[in-house]
Structures are given as C-alpha cells and as structure tokens.
Amino acid sequence: MSAEDLLQQMETSADQGLCGESARGRLRRWGPNTYRELRPRSFIDILASQFRSFSSALVGITGVLTLIRGNPATAALTLGTLVTGAVIDYLTERGAESILTQEGDSESTALVIRDSALREIPETDLVAGDILLLHAGIEVPADGRVILAKNLTVDQSALTGESLPTPKTAASLAPGTPVAERHNMVYKGTLVTGGNGKAVVVATGRSTEFGRLQTLLGEILPPEARTIRLLNRMARRMLLRGCVGAGFVLALGLLRGYGGFRLLSLAPAVFIAALPVGFSFLATALLSGALRNLKQYHIRVRRLGALGNLGAIQVVCLDKTGTITQNRMTVLRIFCGMKRIEVEEDEFFFEKRLLRPSVCFDLFQLLKISVLCNEAEFLEEDGHAILRGSSTEMTLLRLALKAGFSVGELRGAFPVQRMTFRSENRPFISSLHRTPENQELFAIKGSPFDVLEKCDRHLKDGDVVPLLPEDRRVIESMNVEMASDALRVLGVAYSADETGDEHEKGFIWVGLIGMADPLRKDARKLIAGLHHLGIETVIITGDQTPTAYAIGKKLGISGVEDMKILDAGLLADVPAEIRQSLATRVHVFAKVSPSMKSQIIQSYQNSGQVVAMVGDGINDAPALRMADVGVTLGISGKETALRAADLVLERDELHTLIPAIQAGRSLYRNMERALHFLFIASLGEMIFLSAATAANLGYRSQPLDSLWTSLMVLGFCFDFPDPHLPPDRLPDPFALPNLRETNREAMLIAAGAAGVGAYGILRHGCGPQAGTLAYQTLHTGVLAHAFSIRRSKKGAPGSVPRPGNPILTAVFWAALGTRVLSSFVPGLNRLVGVPSLNLPDMLAMGGGVLFPVLANRSLGGIKTRKDPGNPGQPARPYP
After folding, report:
1. Which three-class secondary structure state does DSSP give residue 203?
2. Hey, CA dihedral for 826, 827, 833, 836, is it positive or negative?
3. Count helices and strands in the chain by DSSP H and E runs
4. Which of 213, 329, 234 is nearest to 683 (CA)?
C-alpha cells in the first residue's frame, strides 16, 4: 500500500496530523502506548512454587506425619528446608533484580504533528494515525510506516539482530515481506542513527512488534529443570516403596496380632522411612553450593531451577550481534598505497610492524578524507568528544581521533561548501571543501566499485601516479577479499582540481576501508571450550547469510565438520518434523526472526537435546525463555533479555559459561551420589522395620540419626568438583543396572545389621536393647557406605584423584565418636539420646558395619574386572 493510501485509510494527514479530539478518541478506544511488563514474582508465589513439584509436596506430607508421630525436631528440620529453599529462591531473584534498569523513572516523549502544529507529547499518548518526526539520536516510540525519508537509517539490531543500520524509504513493498526487510517501516525500541523523516503510527502498545514479543514471552513457560525431574522420579519411587512397605508391615502386624494403636504407629513409621530427612535437604544444599560456585565467576542467577540444567547442556545456540560480537562497528583493515594494513585496538600494522599515520602519507590522507567527507556531527564539551550520526560515520571519526587527528580543527581548516548524501541511485557521499590555500578539495566516499570508476590516478608512497589496469585489478581483488571476510568496504578518493565534480572522472584513488562488528575477545575461547566439553554450537542471527557465514568461519563454529548454513526463511512454512530434521543439522541460521529463534530452540528440544541460548537483545527474549538455560549479558543486555534469562554474565565475559557448565555437571554428579546414599538409607531402614515387626523386636531411634544423615547429604552436595565427567552424557541413577547395584548394597548393609540383631537377641533377649543395637549398626553402616559411594563414582580413566571430602569424614567420625563416648562418659547417653554399649556390643557392631563395606567393595571389584573399560553403568542421556 502506498503512503498516500495509508494516510487516507487512517484518516490523517502528513502535514496536519490528527486533530486533538480524534487523538483523544483513539486513545480511549485503543488504550495507551504501553505493554504488559514482566514483573518479578512475589515471595508468596515463590514459596507456593516450592510445593508445586511432586518431591516437595511429598516432603511436606512426610514432615506433617513426622510431627503427628511426636518427632517435632525432625519435623522442623524437614519443613524448615522447604522454607529455606523458598527464601534462597526469593533472595536470588531479588538480588538479580539489582542489575535491571528502573523503568518509569522518567517519562519518554515523542515529537508529533497534531492540529497542524509540532507538539511534544508523552509517549504513552501516541495513537495510530499520529505523524511522528524522526531524526538521528531518538528511539522510535511506536511502530510506524515511513512516509518521508531523507537519508534515514535505523539501528534495528535489538529487534532483528542486524549488525548494520538499515536505510529507510517511503516506497511500497510487497505483502509478506519479512520484518527485517521492511525498509518502509520503523519499529518501537529501535534507534534512528542518521537522517530524518516522517512516519505515520500504525501500531502502539501490545500491537507493536516489540509488544508482540512481550506477549509471546509471557506465554512461554520455562522448561522443567532436569534436577527437579530427577527428584520427582525419586520421590515417586520412594512413595511407591513407602506404600508397599507400610502395607507389608501392616499385614505382618495383623498376623502378629498387634493392636490398632501400634499398627497406626508402625505403618506411618515405614512410610516416613521411605523418604529420609536428607531428601528435603538435598535440593536446597545443592543449589546453595551451585550459587556459591557461580558467584566467583560473576554469574548472577535469576531462576534457580535452571542450575539443574547446566550440566546437561548438549547444544548452545548463540545470537551474533551484541553477543559474540561487540555491536559496535570497528575498522579492521585498510588498503592504501597498495599496502594491506591491519587495524588492531585502533593501532595500524603493516607486515606486523606498527605504522604511524604521521610517517605514512597515504594512510594520513585516507584518514583525513574520511573525516572531511563525513556526515557525522562532532562536538566538544568539557574536553570530551560527542559524536552523533550513523555507526559507520562515527566509527571513522573515532579512528581518526585515536590516530591523533583533531577533528574540530581539521574541519575548521577545510570548511565544507557542499555535501551530497547517499541515495538509492547514488551509493556514495561527496563533499566540497575550501582548503587553507583557498583552493577546492572534492572528496567522495562510498561503494568501492563506483568510487574506483571515477579514478584515473592513485596515491602511492605519497605520490600521485597513474592508475594502471593491473593496479585496478589489485584493488578490485582486495575489495572482493575484504567483502568475503564480512567487512563493510568503503572506497575513498579526492580531487584537487578547481573544476572537480562528482559526475566527472579524474579523481585520485586513496584506498579501501574495511569495517565490521568485531568478535568479542573471548568469543573464540568460548567456542573452543564448548567443543572441548563435547557441546555442539550454533549461531542464530538476523544478519544476512554472507555475514553470518563469515562469522561462523572465524569462530570455527562447526568444529571439525563442514559448516552448514541455512536461511531461516526457508523454515517458515515447512512442517514441524521437517523443520526439526533440518534445524538439528545446521551450524549457522541467518535472517532469523525473533519468533523463529524460539522455534529453532524448540526443534532441538523436541529431538531430545538440552539447549542453552545466549543472547542480549529484545529479539532474543522468547528464545531465552524457551531454552533449558537462557543466558544473557549483564552490561550490554537489553532489559527484556535480562528479565527473560536464567543466568546473567555480569561482566559480559562469555568464557565464564565454561566453568558454569562444569559446575553444573559437578552438581548433577553430586546429586547422583547423594540420591544413591539416600536410596540405600531409606531401603535399609525399611528392611529393618519390616524385620523388626516380623520378629516383634522393639527399638529406639534418636533425633541425632536424622541429623547425621542430613549432614552426610550436605557433604555430598558440597563435594569437590569433578573435572573429568563424561563430556556429553551423564549417568542415570534410575537405570536398571544402577538400581540393582543399589538394592544389593542396601541388602548387604541390612544383612550386617541383622547379624548384629541376632547377636543382641542371644545376649540381651528379644527386646528393645537388641533392636536398638541392630538399628545403630544399620545406621552406622549406611554412614560408612558413603565413602564407598564416593569412591565408586570414578572419573575418566587416568584422571587425577580428587581430595578427600572433609564433611563426610567429620560427620562419620562425629557420629561414631558420639556413640562410643556415650558409653564411657556418665550422663552423656541421656543427653544425646544414644544408648550405652559395652565392649562386646561395640565389637559386634563394628563387625556388622565392616561386613557390608568389604562385601560391597569385593562385589564392585568383581564387576570392574569383568568389564575393565566400564567401571560403572554405560553412559546414558541425561534423564
């Protein structure tokens, strides 16, 4: 639709705008130009979320049952961990809020035409039909159709991911044109970088592209954390086992003729035994340890659940503009005087030797022309340079300033007489200047091909020499090479003739300037580190295919494979199954829309892979929310991205993601060990209770027993990290081989306790003393087995053994010491609730503890000898 037809349809005028009454009516009808913001969760919501998972709900039920049975200390410990988890979650989210900017502190305004007059109104009062005035430096306040454009360029990187400003035009476009290619549209939240123009507002608030992203973001639910899924699986197994155990004990009690009160006491005891106190402590302790580890790398956590996904990551998708690049145009290469000059940190190098513009006239002249033939504004305030204009033009001024040029003095010495800007049919800018000698200097800068066509001489070693055909071929070849490296290339020339004119030939060629959005310093380090961990890397960008391909090549994004690149527009109308198949075989996606980013993430997830997304822009927010782990940048990240992400790299250091993933893998391995320990503790206690019921054997448990179990779990959670974990697969503790191993270990520990129980019956009779002796043996055996669990979970072959675990060691010896000392220190047994033991009882108990340790290690050794290449279970995908 043409601009005139659109204005007529919207009942507005390009010169007069809307009338005040019409604008007020539209505001009442369509509402203010705002959108729903993502608000942080309240403490009540976070606390309630602790009980939404199956495992947490089961812990809460167990805590209540424990309280009903008359164990307030154990019940307080069980329920207290849930509240502690909510507090940690709440403080984590609130702490992360401090990195977000505060919205609403100052109300933005927009410049519009209303009632035939120029008016400045609150941005929230904009309505469809308003005529926006656009000029360099403003942020577009609403979506608008351009109706007048004078060298208008807009930075859309936050919305589309394009690294270069987009020229805007009032021309009509075909229906269905992708957002990034709608050159006659400006979008809310984008930045005008050059020129000026007018646009008619066509969408406000939630109807804008930015508002739609916000709506999409609110509809996407973060995926369930893998650790929560693992805990829920264990909770279901424990519930099933607890119900079966309680039913079995109830049946035994009925056969033995127990009374109703005793049966109602025994059955809940077995059910509670199926879920040890340490289970409620596990998630809180693990997350606390992970938070501590990530803090040292300056990583802020916004969603605790995502920590459980870190160690399982198999694919990392990365945005390009502003994430792996700096989102700031920089000159990287110059070709002048037939010399190839590399630019690093604003220093010039020729054949790896530092080159100063003061000693190279060709370079000096190129920088001089790039300052004069430049539409960017230059101001000085309090000794500081202020630049306004397009990113390309400001980049050239910054380079000249770094090279020692005084931009203000140079422009004053060569005042501009006339400047003609680029247009669709004129791909270069030209300027006419008056020299200090009162002569004319004509300068042009732009498309290398068009500028070179106007030249018949070139500057070489300070002299003006004829431009021979072979010189022209060298320059053209260098232009192609620089363009193939994804550099934006400009040609620079000048004429000192009094009759110089841009339409004539006879210009003097100066050189080529190649610039690009450079990679972050640690981008290659990140990719190499991820590949070392066995993680696939993918670039998802809104940039053009050649630029995306060049960046992928520089990064080595495909590793040892041939790099495959795909225009994401091809995925738009294909079925989900085909899109999934294509997506998982590509290394670089180009021209990706914001909604397509989240679809690509979902394609990987549907194929069973765990995906992380790293991005910084508004257009990355849906993908950040969709991913198993969303990562953004704390300094350069947009607020929408910050609110959608799970992790924030506070210092924008990409390589810190590597130790974060390693910490996540250690978290999972520590959880697997802790679950192994708890499985054995609960199964052993259930076997004991069943046997005690069958034998009519009483026993006394002590509150300290629950404390020692919880502290052992704490020891596993804060164990030293294991740097030699499998690169891309983690063990499944619920795999059948592991369950058989766990059951065998628990049976042997219970057998040791049964032997001591038989000894107790023979020595003390069938009563509480024999039952308590057997129970203490069982509990001590479980604590001792913790060391075997830690020892059996080996790292990679040839890996350096980790240091011992001081918490496990301290807890075991504290528990054992308490039991021994209570037998010798008068009154101590009553104080700590531990029964006194004589020397024969201690020796029997020691034998009952030592037997399962030796038996389990012996059986583990036989298993290892049978399969020396696989000391544990086969690697399985993360559950």
Report:
1. strand
2. positive
3. 29, 28
4. 234
**Pairing verdict, β 611-614 and 384-388:** unpaired
**Residue type at 429 in one-letter notation:** I
CA proximity to 418, closest of 380, 383, 375, 455: 375
Q: Please check the confidence at residue 729 and state whether its pLDDT lies above 60.
A: no
> Averaged over 206-223, what is the pLDDT?
77
* pLDDT tops 80 at residue 784: yes
From the CB of residue 654, how many other CB atoms can be counted at a distance below 10 Å? 24
118's tokens:
């120029």
**Longest Cα separation, the chain:** 122
Token representation of residue 305: 């659940």
CA proximity to 387, closest of 300, 328, 430: 328
Q: Retrieve residue 561's tokens.
A: 């494979």
User: Which candidate, 424, 378, 433, places its Cα nearest to that of 401?
Assistant: 378
| Whole-number Å distance between alpha carbons of 275 and 237 | 10
Q: What is the rounded CA–CA span in Å between residue 259 and residue 255?
A: 11
- CA-to-CA dists, residue 182 to 593, 617, 805, angstroms: 12, 19, 61
Boundaries of domain holding 442:
330-516
**Residue 798: Cβ-neighbour burial (10 angstroms; 0-12, 13-18, 19+):** exposed
173's tokens = 């476009």
Residues 292 and 310 in one domain: no
Closest alpha carbon to 368 in 334, 410, 309, 305: 410
Residues 526-563 pLDDT 10s:
999 999 888 999 999 888 788 888 889 989 999 888 89
Contact (Cβ atoms closer than 8 angstroms) between residue 49 and residue 89: yes
What local confidence, expressed as pLDDT, does residue 247 receive?
78
Contact present, 191 and 349 (Cβ < 8 Å): no
Decide which of 127 and 707 is more confident. 127
Mark whether 390 and 306 lie in a shared domain.
no
Is residue 257 in a domain? no
- Domain shared by 507 and 537, yes or no: no
- CATH code for the domain in which residue 836 is found: 1.20.1110.10
| Long-range CB contacts (within 8 A, 24+) of 820-827 | none
| Contact (CB, 8 A) for 687 and 747 | yes
CATH number at residue 490: 3.40.1110.10
Say if residues 328 and 517 touch (Cβ distance below 8 Å).
Answer: yes
- For residues 580 and 498, state if they share a domain: no
What gap in Å lies between CA 452 and CA 448, rounded to an integer? 6
* DSSP string computed for 159-199: HH--SSPEE-------TT--GGG-TTEE-TT-EEEEEEEEE
Which tokens belong to 440? 């004319």
At a CB cut-off of 8 Å and minimum separation 6, what does 863 contact?
871
Which residues are within 8 A (CB) of 438 and not within 5 positions of it... i.e. 6 or more apart? none
